[in-house]
């Protein structure tokens, strides 16, 4: 299946899939209303093995990192990593239950125990680290801005008093809210909504992780990532419930093993390299 058809199938069905899977309204970086989640079990890894399945939060509408294909199957870079973890834990990559998440509810899904682990292209920030525990990173990332190639945004100064499209609870939302109050932000819950808004002309540009924007622009002629790197360099990492040392240690071991034995690079070559081609190198994306 060509990547372009994957994107089209995703855009047609992802909103419905995410609507069925997501719980509403909780913030990605803050405490949510309601009682505190129960403390993790003394050996949460043993508890997961006892259940016979590991629940991992992934995106359903963020190709090539996490998305649902035309056959209703989870695909993408994060999904490949999740399958490798399930294989190591249970001997089978099928022993993973994928739970679709959105940017704004990743923290709450980990905190509440709705998932055992979040692998949803989760950028590590100090604020988020107060609410969840991040494991070793597996990707490097920065922010980028995509815009129509006929009216490219090449400098943040061009965004003054203009509408910039972002996803709620993302690093792009936080960065522009804090550092550029002169920019008007129009925020959406789901990636499909945000990119549709760009196509509809509801904003002059869209800000998101540069790794995602490069992939999207390649599949959508007429748009370019004219600003490829703004804000601080950051990393993407798995996240678990705060204080769950047993699971955190296990995930750290998994990431280290995948880096050492080449499985992380193999996941990159399977899911990301066909999208980026020669424009992006593996060492530009994969964390050491």
Automatic annotation (TrEMBL):
Family matches, as Pfam families: SBP_bac_3 (PF00497)
Domain of life: Bacteria
Keywords: Signal, Transport
Domain Solute-binding protein family 3/N-terminal: 53-275
One of the protein's GO biological processes: amino acid transport
Assigned GO CC terms: extracellular region; outer membrane-bounded periplasmic space
Signal sequence bounds: 1-24
Entry's family note: Belongs to the bacterial solute-binding protein 3 family.
Name of the featured protein: ABC transporter arginine-binding protein 1
Source organism of this protein record: Kingella potus
């Amino acid at each position: 299946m060509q990547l372009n058809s994957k994107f089209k199938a995703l855009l047609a069905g992802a909103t419905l899939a995410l609507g069925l899977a997501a719980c509403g309204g909780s913030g990605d970086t803050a405490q949510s209303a309601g009682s505190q989640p129960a403390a993790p079990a003394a050996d949460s890894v043993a508890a997961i093995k006892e259940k016979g399945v590991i629940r991992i939060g992934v995106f359903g509408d963020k190709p090539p990192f996490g998305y649902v294909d035309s056959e209703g199957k989870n695909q993408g870079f994060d999904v490949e990593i999740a399958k490798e973890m399930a294989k190591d834990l249970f001997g089978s990559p099928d022993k993973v239950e994928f739970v679709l998440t959105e940017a704004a509810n990743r923290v709450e899904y980990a905190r509440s125990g709705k998932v055992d682990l979040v692998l949803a292209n989760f950028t590590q920030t100090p604020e988020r680290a107060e609410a969840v525990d991040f494991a070793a990173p597996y990707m490097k990332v920065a922010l980028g801005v995509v815009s129509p190639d006929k009216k490219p945004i090449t400098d943040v100064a061009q965004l003054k008093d203009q509408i910039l499209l972002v996803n709620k609870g993302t690093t792009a939302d936080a960065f522009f809210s804090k550092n550029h109050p002169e920019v008007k932000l129009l925020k959406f819950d789901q990636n499909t909504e945000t990119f549709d808004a760009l196509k509809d002309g509801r904003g002059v540009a869209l800000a998101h992780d540069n790794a995602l924007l490069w992939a999207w622009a390649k599949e959508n002629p007429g748009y370019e990532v004219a600003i490829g790197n703004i804000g601080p360099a950051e990393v993407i990492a798995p996240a678990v419930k705060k204080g769950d040392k047993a699971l955190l240690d296990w995930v750290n071991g998994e990431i280290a093993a995948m880096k050492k034995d080449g499985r992380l690079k193999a996941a990159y070559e399977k899911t990301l390299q066909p999208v980026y081609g020669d424009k992006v190198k593996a060492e530009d994306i994969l964390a050491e």
